[in-house]
Amino acid sequence: MKEYDDFVNNNEEIKDKMSIRTENLIADTVDIPDQNVILMAVDDNEKFSEYVHLNNNGEMIIPDDGVIVNKKLLDSLGKNVGDEIELRDSYNNYYKMKVKAINENYLGHYAYISKTYYEEVFKKDYDYNSDIIKLNSNDVKVKDNFTKEISKIDSVMYVFNVFKTINIAKDWLSNLTYVIILILFVSATLAFVVLYNLNSVNISERIREIATLKVLGFYPRELTSYVYRETILLSTLGILLGFLGGIGLNNLILEYITPMNIQLVSHIMWYNYVISAALTYVFIFMVMIIVHKKLKTTDMVGALKAYE
User: Fold this and answer.
1) Helix count (H) and strand count (E) of the chain?
2) In which element (H, E) is residue 40 found?
3) What distance in Å separates the CA atoms of residue 150 and residue 3, rounded to the nearest whole number?
């Protein structure tokens, strides 16, 4: 430990640090592979909040009579706030803890308890075995070099670089963005094709009615408005139903496509609905132009004779 203490105390890159107790535990989950959980036991809530922000619609304080866990872990265990959960160590020693609250955590599984509750659950004295370290610089190379240097110390078992983990998550999400763009393109193409085919079928089935209206003196714009009124009404109804179905489908996708140690939260803004509806109406307008030209060139005589 002397080598580690000398390195930390004399390193100019270190801005601040806090000592805590950590335990690597395992959660026996339901119907999925067991999940690794990092438990952090803290003896100073105020200082810990400067390093780790526990948040769920507001700042949270680690209680003395329970544990705070992330929502994804709680869901995988099939438990709720107020229930007891069991976590085990590598020696299959089980530890029961009461869940007092959940926090927003999007990468990995973490549990947070106080020093008092740690000693109550683990039946042993609280002792530091980990440090949370802040560096003066946010430069990637500086952080990578620091990680390499501290990893060379024999007493250091593991170094967790938060910045590197965030970059991995960003890369994963950026790859997901390409998939989303592809889905949007295919969906837009499908919407255009469906609208065009439905209108083509509608005109084909009502060609005699349309020809009769032309004979009666309907102008092309009036005829297009008459035929297309139903399409606009049904499309508007489809957009509204699509909003409702889309919300449920979005939640379903986020629930099942993400890895078990990653949580994605949906933030659908009002302008997302406006843009999607506007794009649909753009396709409706494009199809209407094609339909309008088609109606202008309708052979009235041929259409009326075809049924005689």
Assistant:
1) 10, 7
2) strand 35-42
3) 10
286: number of Cβ within 10 Å: 13
215 token code pair: 């004979």
Half-sphere exposure of 290 (CA within 13 A, CB side): 14
Question: pTM for this one?
Answer: 0.74
Residue 102: which residues within 8 A CB-CB, separation 6 or more?
A: 56, 68, 69, 70, 71, 74, 81
Residue 7 and residue 153: Cα distance in Å, rounded? 9
The dihedrals phi and psi of 275, each to the nearest 5 degrees, come to -65, -45
76 closest CA partner among 58, 57, 99 = 99
Q: CA–CA separation, 162 vs 168, rounded Å?
A: 10
Taking only the tens place, the pLDDT of each residue in 35-87 is 899 999 999 988 998 888 887 766 788 999 999 998 888 888 888 998 999 99
| Residue type, position 260, single letter | M
Of residues 108, 98, 99, 94, the one with CA closest to residue 168: 108
For 281-302, the pLDDT digits (tens) are 898 888 888 877 877 776 666 6
Nearest to 293 by CA among 190, 189, 198, 199: 199
* Contact yes or no for 21/130 (Cβ under 8 A): yes
Strand partners, 262: 107
Q: CA nearest 263: which of 275, 250, 254? A: 254
Placement of tokens 């889905």 in the chain: 183
Q: How far apart are the first and last CA of the chain?
A: 101
Q: Are 115 and 41 in contact (CB under 8 A)?
A: yes
**Which helix (H) or strand (E) covers residue 101, if one does?**
strand 94-103
Residue 148 phi/psi, 5-degree rounding, is -65, -40
Residue-by-residue DSSP string for 269-296: -HHHHHHHHHHHHHHHHHHHHHHHHHHH
Number of Cβ within 10 Å of residue 188's Cβ equals 15
Q: Are 37 and 57 contacting, i.e. CB atoms less than 8 angstroms apart?
A: no
